[in-house]
Amino acid sequence: MNGSSRFLSAVSAFAISASVLTAAGTMVLVSPVSAEAAVVRRIDVRGAERVGADTVRAALTIAPGKDFSNADIDASIKRLYATGFFSDVRIGVSGGTLVVTVNENQLINQVVFNGNRKLKDDKLATLVRTRPLGAYSETMIESDIQAIREAYNAIGRSDVQITTQTVPVGDGRVNLAFVINEGDRTKIDNIEFSGNNAYSDGRLRAVIITKRSNFLSFLTRKDIYSEDKLRADEEALRQFYYNHGYADFRVLSSNATLDPNTNEYHITFEVDEGERYEFGPVNVESTVDGVDAEELKRLVDSRQGKTYRARDVQDSISAISERVAAAGYPFARVTPRGNRDMSGKTISVDYLVDQGERAYVERIEVRGNMSTRDYVIRREFDLAEGDAFNQEKIAQAKRRLERLGYFASVNISTQPGSAADRVVIIVDVVDQSTGNFGIGGGYATGGEGFIVEASVEEKNFLGRGQYIKVSASGGAVTRNYSIAFTEPYFLGYRLAAGFDLFKSENSVYDNYTYADQGFSLRVTAPITNNLTTTFRYNYKEVDYTSDSAWRLSQPYQDIVKGSPWLISSVSQSINYNSLDTMVLPHEGINASVTHEFAGLGGDSDFYKLSGKARYYQTLSDEMDLVASLGGSAGHMFSTNGGNLNVFDQFSLDSDDIRGFANKGIGPRMTKNGDPLGGTTYFTATADVSFPLPGIPQDSGFRGGFFLDAGTLYGNDVKVTRGVVQGEDMQWRVSAGASLIWASPFGPLRVDYAIPLVKQDFDVVQRLKFGISTAF
């Protein structure tokens, strides 16, 4: 009989009667009636050699000189078993003595792990509850085995085998070993869909988080199966269909079957797509006095005739809720009511604004965050304990948490609180990797040769939500180093404050060496959910040196002679970002405008105004064909009536117009081709990307074509000797193809561009590539 059975037997026996030992040592039964009034003078403990009699007495609910009942005996037995020190407990009464007889469990002397390679000892030690000097408990050990098995499942090893071994070491102590056979990695052989007609299996595999195993899965870990990921995949499918017109979409089932022979999962999703809808008539109604429904209607994003998108409905609810709350109605509720027209395949939406029930937040519970600290999650809520409950603020917090990039999934639910007007907010998150290792490079003519870049980035440093990045790059003639740090909630406010430190060296054509170093202090404040503004103070020291200054053009001879140069400036940027994702976006706009003033001391005095924008749009959902249009412009002038320095003027790099090297276009001296930069620039680009035919879409490979155009002109650098070329507005045009791969190392892009329109003095760079890698 094991400990649990003996425990139940003991409890059952005392539910009927109490055992009494006579002076002769024989057992007699005492009726419950006599036990109810029993009193003992002393307590005799037997068998507690290691634990000690005092420990046993401390666990009893019975004391000498006090009445006790069968309920006290029952409670004492339960408490003694709960200590984990005993395998058997018996309590009897002999005359005026309470006799407590126990059999001690063995004590754990040492806990070790054998056979583990993928999970280290220190990791496993935090999972098990069995500890040295603790009692040996079969129940606890079984629980520890299950915890170890779940940890191995989380790293993709579902066939792990775990046993235990004990070695007696004397004095009732044993060494306990968990013997682990880790087995092979459990893979995902295939992911299939049934019931999908509008989108192919390949298109839907690109939507979900879980991926099929491939030769690089050991790096990506996206082929690890878990129930949580499967639920997240279901939600990803729902959101995809809901935002593409399929309001009736359902996931009927999702199943994962493990083949024990191959140790591979086969995952199947059964879906019901339903019909594809467009928005019908849209209206706003209000039952709240003082709220103008017609004014609110202008805030609605769901327009009649557009493809139905759940995101548009949610954005409309958000806009209306914010406006009503700002008008002084914190409990107002916005409820969308949809009316389907099955024949016309439209959904009419009425947004009803009414005075919701008064409810308050009792507390916010955060669950599932293993790396991220609680306060990092809580601060994304505009609600605190005791505030008026507002569903829209809950939705805003969810969107903010998702945008952080810290979590694979975010789910927020509510539960009734301790009173009818109290609500408990439950936040369930699943952490994901937030570190990035980046490596990239390119090749440039004109002496640059190959350029290699590397960076280490962490978006959630120590789980505090802080951002840090260290990067370095170099080639035949360049060296660049930088450190960036951002605290997203400076002084407890929603202000992202940080700094950038940088140092670079650049030698051009062996005629001079260029070096700069400095720092930037910045603060970013939100204006709306998509609009932010950033203020910066910038300080830079620029140093030009040359052993053969006579070979340089006159402007460069002047800056070599005057080095080092100091630049002190302030700038402000306004950024608008509505992209669906920053990695391979499919829709939305990213735009910014920056103006900068230099002249707070230092050697530069200028004003710069620049801006850039990029628009993304999916041309075909089924083909996953995405187009983008972009452009940028800038202009600057001197603020002290003098000339600009070479290093002050604008320059364009290979990201602005592909096919040309950094500083490859624009005004330059005819002697040695020294680049001067320009006072004005314009660029334009058009891209289209698509999955590569014949390659599974969930592999992450995409192809693309692009057309770039740009010009850099104007010059305000003082030139007393030599001739400047390229001062006039002269457009350059290039076209090319791209290979894009959402690799385990992050998005990799290789661009090959052919300049179609160029000047003889331009510096060409046909090939450019870069990688940003997640680890």
UniProtKB/TrEMBL annotation:
Tell me what this protein is called: Outer membrane protein assembly factor BamA
This protein's major location comes to: membrane
Q: Where is the signal peptide?
A: 1-23
Q: Which domain of life is it from?
A: Bacteria
User: What HAMAP family would the database entry show?
Assistant: OM_assembly_BamA
Q: Which family does it belong to?
A: Belongs to the BamA family.
InterPro entries, sorted: Bac_surfAg_D15, BamA/TamA_POTRA, D15-like, OM_assembly_BamA, POTRA
Subcellular location as annotated = Cell outer membrane; Membrane
Q: Which UniProt keywords apply?
A: Cell outer membrane, Membrane, Repeat, Signal, Transmembrane, Transmembrane beta strand
Q: What does this protein do?
A: Part of the outer membrane protein assembly complex, which is involved in assembly and insertion of beta-barrel proteins into the outer membrane.
Describe the location of the POTRA domain by residue ranges.
Answer: 38-105, 106-183, 186-274, 359-432
Subunit comment: Part of the Bam complex.
Keyword Aminoacyl-tRNA synthetase among UniProt keywords: no
* Organism name: Rhizobium alvei
Note the NCBIfam families from the entry: OM_YaeT (TIGR03303)
